[in-house]
Amino acid sequence: MRLIAEALTRVYGDRRVLDGVDLELRPGQSVAITGPSGSGKTTLLGLCGGLVRPTGGTVTVEDDDGRRSPPDEHVGYVLQTVNVLPRRTALDNAALGALHDGTSWPDALDLAREALPRVGLGGLEDRIARSLSGGELQRVVIARALVGRHPFVLADEPTGQLDRSTSRDVTRTLLEASRDSCLVVVTHDEEVARSCEIVLRIDDGHLVPA
Ligand SMILES: Nc1ncnc2c1ncn2[C@@H]1O[C@H](COP(=O)(O)OP(=O)(O)OP(=O)(O)O)[C@@H](O)[C@H]1O
Question: In what order do the strands lie in the sheet with 30-34?
Answer without folding.
Answer: 75-78, 152-156, 182-186, 30-34, 198-203, 206-209
